[in-house]
Write a structure and sequence with these properties.
Elements (H helix, E strand, L loop, with lengths): L1 H16 L5 E9 L7 E10 L5 E7 L3 E12 L2 E6 L3 E3 L3 E5 L5 E7 L8 E8 L4 E9 L10
Parallel strand pairs: 1-10
Antiparallel strand pairs: 1-2, 2-7, 2-8, 3-6, 3-9, 4-5, 4-8, 9-10
């Protein structure tokens, strides 16, 4: 009897440990910085395949001492960054965190972010869930061509 209960408990714990998230982090990257830069940003698309909206409330990384969720607003023709308390990841949709829009701001970097390196990132949601991933560091201008 004890063996059956133990086996059943182990099966239940193992199945919940392998539960898949409804969120998919696509194309994440952190902006590369020059040696003395103190700020950077992280961008990505978050795909929510679930039946409920999700609320991103914070993010963390060891690459920065301070991390904030941000958006960019147009005020009297001037583009300004503003901190936001949360970002809604709408059910069955994609939410883009991109330059000029929603993004994760990194302040007080612990060192320069060098191209081809990776930083660990954790996204924290209002329901207590966390999504962890490695974001590659990329040059923002990489791949852009100038036309005359």
């Amino acid at each position: 009897m004890k063996k059956t209960i133990f086996a059943l408990s182990a099966l239940l714990l193992s199945s919940s440990a392998f539960a898949q998230s409804d969120l998919i982090i696509e194309n994440p990257y952190a902006r590369a910085t020059p040696p003395n830069a103190v700020n950077s940003a992280i961008f990505m698309t978050i795909k929510n395949d679930g039946d409920n909206d999700r609320t991103l409330v914070s993010a963390t990384t060891s690459a920065a001492n301070k991390v904030e969720l941000h958006t960019v607003i147009n005020t009297d023709g001037m583009m300004k960054m503003r901190e936001v308390k949360s970002i809604t990841i709408t059910k069955n949709a994609n939410t883009a965190l991109k330059p000029g829009g929603l993004h994760i701001m990194l302040f007080e970097l612990t060192g320069p972010l060098k191209e081809e390196e990776f930083i660990d990132v954790t996204l924290n949601f209002a329901n207590g869930d966390k999504e962890q991933f490695k974001a590659p560091v990329k040059k923002v201008m990489a791949g852009m061509k100038h036309k005359m």
